[in-house]
Design goal:
heterodimer, A: 10 helices, 85% helix, B: 0% strand, globular
Chain lengths: 231, 268
């Protein structure tokens, strides 16, 4: 019935799941673009709302880019376990005999590759829109590359807790935004330090530490959350 | 065989107490006996502390009378953090050992903690008006207290979103634990963010507090602990009543003090 149960070792199960999720995402290519389009629209609203003054835009650019990235991540998170929960696949994972932690990690990684990585790649374009000084460009991309996985990992816990609710998406933002506060502070702090020609390495180091911590702890919490939601 | 198993070494009195507390009927009866005393001690201590603080303590040489808001603000802020920690510890116990009473206690803690957080924020901003000249500054303490309020709201929101109470409690307990891991990180990052972005803002009042000002604060700190205990147990009893309304032990427990009128509602 389920070939994972009988044949696959743990790494094979991990990569099989990763491949499945990526394949599913690429079969629905327009949905892939939603977070990116959302990011573009949100960022373009700021100059319209605040005014096109280059100095002001450069000043608020780190915050605007990061808040837009947070919002785009939370919007894309809702679909992380939703379809698997609704068609019962998630329950099959639970009884497959493979550790749920690993399954949660594979799905979170797939989510980041599909929703987080494109944000990182698109961010230089947005930074030009927001008139961010060129010297801070590299640091901005680095903060996004290091910290968007943290957003996916922490967000997955929230999704795991809300997946069985009918309107979990609205609650999700309340659950995860407070947990994103340190990431937002450190990432924008790093970009601002780079803008002011100050040393920024410590910020990147902290984000890396956050990434390692959340990578080791968050999948366990996600698995526990999924077990509660499936009970 | 079974008779042999029954002869166990005598349990430690404390362990026995905890085991008994895990049983809803026992907890319900015990809490019912304790609650009036807790409320009474709270009322006495609060009256004493507030009298000393509001009437007897001398006015501050710098802040005048406005410092007296400290006697509400500081205990409330302390309680807001303490209750979050306790809620997460109770949540951990509830998740690991599946103790139902602990789930109920953790979930009853959340509204009390959120209320203390809100009280600390409101009194803090009222206090900020005469001393800092504004109702709100993005001071590190105020900001982390605000994030704490959001964490409480998340726990309460998640609890009320689920239909099934036990599943709801377990989900919310897990969220409280995740929040507890994050809370120190949030606190230090906010503290650091504030020192990064603006010059050192006006700190909370001077480092030394005179003894006549300190005593009422200590009394109020103890009083808020009793308030929490009384409020928590009252809430937990109500929650147990709501969840177990159709169960036999509630009928027995409530029959004992029939004058409460609760029994009528149950039998209907």
């Amino acid at each position: 019935m389920n070939e994972l149960t009988h044949t696959a070792s743990i790494p094979r199960a991990f990569f099989a799941l990763l491949r499945r999720d990526l394949l599913l995402a690429f079969r629905r290519r327009t949905e892939l673009l939603y977070p990116l389009m959302f990011l573009l629209v949100v960022v373009s609203l700021f100059p319209l709302g605040i005014g096109p003054g280059p100095a002001l835009l450069a000043r608020i650019a780190p915050g605007v880019l990061w808040i837009a990235a947070l919002l785009a991540t939370v919007i894309s998170l809702d679909s992380l376990f939703r379809s698997d929960f609704e068609d019962g696949t998630l329950e099959q994972y639970l009884i497959s005999g493979h550790p749920l932690t690993l399954i949660a990690l594979a799905k979170t990684l797939a989510h980041w590759l599909v929703a987080g990585l494109p944000l990182v790649l698109l961010s230089p374009l947005l930074a030009i829109w927001m008139n961010l000084p060129t010297r801070a460009m590299g640091v901005m991309v680095a903060t996004l590359a290091l910290a968007t996985p943290i957003l996916s990992l922490i967000g997955a816990i929230g999704v795991g807790l809300t997946v069985s609710l009918r309107r979990g998406g609205q609650l999700l933002s309340l659950l995860v935004f407070p947990l994103y506060v340190p990431v937002l502070i450190i990432a924008t702090g790093g970009i601002m330090a780079a803008v002011d020609d100050l040393p920024y390495q410590a910020f990147l180091g902290l984000l890396l530490a956050g990434l390692i911590t959340s990578l080791t702890l968050a999948p366990f919490a996600t698995a526990a959350a999924l077990k509660i939601s499936l009970s | 065989m079974s008779s042999k198993q029954n002869i166990k070494p005598r349990k430690n009195a404390l362990v026995l107490f905890f085991h008994k507390m895990g049983s809803p009927p026992w907890f319900f009866a015990f809490a019912g006996k304790l609650i009036p005393w807790l409320w009474a001690v709270f009322a006495g201590l609060a009256a004493w502390g507030l009298y000393l603080g509001l009437f007897r303590a001398p006015p501050d040489y710098l802040q005048g009378e406005s410092f007296r808001i400290m006697y509400i603000h500081v205990p409330a802020a302390w309680m807001s953090m303490l209750i979050y920690g306790l809620m997460a510890v109770m949540g951990f116990i509830a998740l690991v050992w599946r103790v139902r009473v602990m789930e109920i206690l953790a979930m009853s803690s959340a509204p009390v903690g959120a209320a203390f957080t809100l009280a600390a924020l409101i009194t803090g901003s009222l206090w900020g008006r005469p001393t800092w000249g504004t109702y709100w500054v993005w001071d590190a303490r105020l900001t982390s207290e605000l994030v704490l309020l959001f964490l409480y709201l998340g726990v309460m929101g998640l609890y009320s979103a689920h239909d099934e109470p036990r599943k709801a409690a377990r989900a919310a307990c897990l969220l409280a634990l995740v929040g507890l891991v994050n809370l120190p990180i949030i606190h230090f990052s906010v503290k650091w963010w504030n020192t990064l972005h603006q010059d050192s803002s006006i700190g909370i009042t001077g480092s030394h507090i005179h003894i006549s000002m300190l005593w009422p604060l200590l009394i109020m700190t103890v009083a808020t602990k009793f308030y929490y205990a009384a409020n928590l147990l009252t809430r937990a009893r109500v929650m147990l009543l709501q969840q177990d309304l159709r169960k036999g032990w509630i009928r027995d427990a409530v029959k004992l003090n029939d004058d409460s009128g609760l029994n009528q509602g149950i039998t209907q």
